[in-house]
Amino acid sequence: MEGSTTQKLNLVQFILSISLALLVFLWSLDLMTSSFHVIGNDTVIKVLAITSNPFISLFIGLFITAVIQSSSTSTSLIVAVVASGGMTLENAVPMIMGANMGTTLTSTIVSLSYITDNKEFKNAIATGVMHDFFNIMTVMVLFPLEYYYHVLSKLSTQVVTALNLSHTPAAKGQESGLSFFDMINGFLIDSVEYKFVLVLVACIALFASIKIISKIISNRMIGASEERFQEVFFKNKLNSFGLGTVLTAGIQSSSITTSIIVPLGATGKIHLSKIYPYIVGANVGTTITALIAAFNKSEAALSIAVVHFLFNLIGSILFLVIPYLNQLPIRYARQFGLMTMQYRVIGFFYILFIFFILPLALIFLHRL
Hints:
0% strand; Na/Pi_transpt; 81% helix; globular; transmembrane; cell membrane; single chain
């Protein structure tokens, strides 16, 4: 009886904690959008000037996500900027692609912790970079299509229009239909002289709320499911994909869900071919944050959230369903694992170059 009461209290505490964190998440997005509206045209022009180059936009998304290690946060920020009119849908699409690439850094870094054991290091690196290669290959296919034909931006707009998801704000700066948020944020905007402070506060609240949601749900879900990974969830590709999708949708962090699988791949308990659908599912699951962030906002904001989903969905179809293509990320990950086992410095150089040196160099050169 006492155990049952404790379980009920834990469940109530879990629901209240998640609800409060979600409320802060939605408030921070609304504050950010409203703040961007009143910052001024000069700032908007500067943002547009930087992101007008699709290649720079791609690497800005990659670098920001690599630094904060949360594609959920970076995509939510992008949604807020698009909702405020500070960035066009077409300019934001490459940044979403870059965010997908940047979030793979965590699992790759985790794999380096096995550097003292040759066999485990090879398997760990292969498991970690499989996430990288899936996103890189998806970008290689979809970036040119978006660059020349705007495939993703047009398709996402059609989806939003067809499903009648768009929302027309009642007034400028009042995109959210939540009057409670409007009252609070209106008071803050009128009271605070320097609006960039409000953007900073919103960013901190956004990041903190996502981390809290991630920690609460991961503590509850991962502990309960870890022992059953091999028995149930990795019997076939569908189970593996479903686990990655559901777990990441709940935790709201593909960085966490892909990192926890690295030890199982490193020790050889789960084969790479079974881990791969789980990683692809994690990519799809992480798109739920942007969709929540775009809730009740402009058509452009909803469209960029749908872009995030379509990017991962199309990538999943190409590199998980289609024969031969679905073996490429696994094959290249194995080869990279073997190469890094022989020359360990390659792993460190790969991380520094792909996630930091290359994007920073391109951004810097563009500013000259």
